[in-house]
Specification:
- The termini are far apart.
- Helix content is 29%, strand content 31%.
- It is built from three helices and nine strands.
- The chain is globular, with a radius of gyration of 16 Å.
- The chain has 160 residues and is of the alpha+beta class.
- The protein has a five-stranded antiparallel sheet with strand order 1-2-3-5-4, covered by helices on one side.
- β4 and β5 (77-83) form a beta hairpin.
């Protein structure tokens, strides 16, 4: 964690916390997921490590990109550093629009839908099944890009 400065907490799950962090050497923003390994059963530990392996193996413009992973010895957490989605996730945007009584433009719905579909296609090309596709796992960028993320429960399908 010495190489990063925590900027803000983005979200929290049962066994992990996600932060916006700034890497000191390049001053760029990243998302850092801290997985509390001590709190996990063996199967959940396997899923956490599997997420790192899968993220590291996928190269797609429609899937959140992996940067690095390391163990933070201080609090026994697996830290996964990923691309930072500067517009949050689709669930947040839906919630905000609903609150403000704003409707999505049809062109935006199609743009996001097509990018999700392309992300799934790319994952399937790697024989990866996402298994947790929901609006909270679709990450948005200011340039209009939408990318799939949170591959914690994804599986590699074995053809045979």
């Amino acid at each position: 964690m010495d190489n990063f400065e925590i900027v803000a907490k983005i979200g929290e799950g049962s066994y992990s916390v996600v932060y916006t962090v700034r890497r000191k050497k390049d001053n760029k923003l990243y998302a850092l997921k801290k997985v509390k390994m001590k709190a996990l059963c063996p199967k959940e530990k396997k899923n956490a490590l599997n997420e790192v392996r899968i993220l590291a193996s996928v190269n797609s413009p429609y899937v959140i990109s992996y940067k690095e992973a390391f163990i933070d010895e201080i609090d026994s957490t697996l830290c996964i550093v990923m691309e930072y989605a500067d517009e949050g996730d689709l669930y947040q945007k839906i919630t905000l629009y609903k609150k403000r009584n704003i409707h999505f433009e049809l062109i935006d719905i199609w743009r996001i839908f097509i990018q999700i579909t392309k992300g799934l296609h790319d994952l399937h090309e790697y024989n990866i099944l996402h298994r947790d596709l929901k609006s909270a796992n679709v990450f948005l960028f200011r340039d209009g890009t939408a990318k799939l993320g949170d591959l914690n429960v994804s599986k590699v399908a074995h053809r045979g």
